[in-house]
Write a structure and sequence with these properties.
five-stranded antiparallel sheet, 4 domains
Length: about 450
């Protein structure tokens, strides 16, 4: 480089430093770019996004080209700085390439460009895509040789490079994190629905089913007048029909058929049995995930199913509406405006709750944090904590809530009053016998 003038060498030094900064910054931008956003823009017709997506799909090519450019520019900058130092003839001139140039490269060619590129990754990567495409084309022979040497070295240490990159796919937990951190790009309501869809795989029909004792149905062993009264007042469009016990299921009754028979005056016990027998009940095993059950409902063209245990006994009823409610949630998240058939708010702020309600529904509707990894209903949770069937008036404290048993029937808790408990209040539970309060918290 002796034929270059000193000003020319200075400009050449600045050029090599600029190339080093470009290579360092764009490498970070390319590695940090949002692949899914890039693919979305590419699908919308953005030419640079399509180019960037192809480059990111083959990182070996552009990384190799970038490393070649970075190595040459760094070596060139050091060489030019050394020549300039020698030309000065100063005693300590060689400190220029050994101390000053590395410091300048560290700050202005490494840290600053990489920080900027990390903050504006997508924009920098899209702007650099055309240049990288040209670099990959021009440096292909050198890149191929470098990759061959690198892969050979990796194989010596037992590392298989390249191949299937399917491990880049997001796991359910990672996808859940992406949705949770989507920020203002996805409205809160939509984020919650997306997270609920992802949670369907972890929720089973046992978690949301209507318990066996709460299933409304027609018992043909009942008095005929009582059956007719039931048919007239039921809010349901379909009812299970059984005889004596719900496990002795005959079939399903559609109220439209009942109305037609009543209009003709031809409805009697025998005809009711015939109509119900025309539609067989649909059974699903307990433990079925909601994702599977939703697909089963669609395939079978059914709207509700009876959940059975390993012995074939009916444990509850799950409906399509129950699953959809897990996705869309309640119409309001404000506990002050809760409107649900199993929840009634008192003026004092307490809630009268049907104990057969599922814990998941109560947590969602009222913002509670009751445990869901054990019993599925409030009745089951209270009985588990009390370890006995209580009497009316017994109280139990769980976390920040106090439960007062109001009604007991058929060896189960039917109705409870729930009050929020002050944070500083002592932990205790009522034993339901003599009105005394113990010192043990039911946890």
């Amino acid at each position: 480089m002796q034929e270059f003038t000193t000003p020319a060498l200075l400009w050449l030094l600045l050029l090599t430093l600029a190339v080093t900064a470009f290579s360092s910054g764009t490498e970070v931008a390319m590695l940090s770019a949002n692949r899914y956003r890039v693919r979305s823009r590419a699908a919308a017709g953005d030419r640079r996004a399509r180019m960037l997506d192809r480059l990111l799909g083959k990182p070996d090519d552009w990384l190799g080209a970038n490393l070649i450019v970075l190595t040459l520019s760094s070596a060139g900058a050091t060489t030019i700085a050394t020549i300039l130092a020698v030309r000065t003839g100063h005693e300590y001139a060689l400190l220029l390439p050994t101390l000053i140039v590395p410091t300048v490269m560290l700050i202005f060619c490494e840290l600053a460009p990489k920080i900027f590129a990390a903050v504006h990754a997508d924009g920098v990567a899209l702007a650099a895509a055309p240049l990288y495409r040209a670099l990959v084309f021009l440096s292909r022979p050198g890149v191929a040789l470098a990759n061959w040497a690198a892969y050979g070295l990796l194989r010596v240490f037992g590392v298989v490079a390249g191949g299937d990159r399917g491990d880049q796919a997001l796991s359910p937990e990672e996808l859940r994190m992406v949705v949770s951190e989507s920020g203002p790009m996805v409205p809160q309501r939509h984020r919650q629905m997306l997270l609920s869809i992802l949670d369907l795989e972890r929720i089973t029909v046992d978690d949301i089913m209507i318990p066996r004792q709460e299933i409304a149905g027609i018992d043909l062993a009942d008095d005929w007048e009582r059956i007719l009264e039931q048919l007239r007042q039921t809010p349901h469009t379909r009812l299970p029909v059984y005889e004596g016990d719900i496990d002795a299921m005959i079939g399903l009754l559609h109220m439209k058929r009942v109305a037609q028979e009543l209009a003709r005056g031809a409805l009697d016990r025998h005809r009711l049995r015939e109509i119900a027998a025309q539609r067989e009940p649909y059974f699903v095993p307990e433990g079925t995930s909601l994702t599977v059950q939703l697909a089963n409902f669609q395939r079978a063209r059914r709207r509700f199913a009876f959940v059975v245990d390993e012995y074939g006994d009916i444990q509850g009823l799950v409906t399509l509406e129950d699953i959809l409610e897990e996705i869309v949630g309640e119409f309001t998240n404000d506990p002050a405006t809760v409107s649900h058939k199993d929840i009634h708010r008192e003026a004092s702020g307490a809630h009268i709750v049907n104990a057969s309600a599922t814990i998941r529904m109560l947590n969602r509707a009222l913002g509670w944090q009751l445990p869901i990894d054990g019993p599925k209903t409030l009745n089951g949770l209270l009985l588990e904590r009390l370890e006995t069937i209580p009497e009316a008036g017994a109280t139990l404290r769980i976390e920040t809530l106090e439960f007062e048993v109001l009604q007991i029937a058929d060896n189960a808790i039917r109705t409870v009053r729930v009050r929020p408990r002050a944070n500083g209040e002592a932990n205790s539970h009522h034993d339901g016998t003599d009105g005394s309060t113990g010192s043990n918290d039911a946890r």
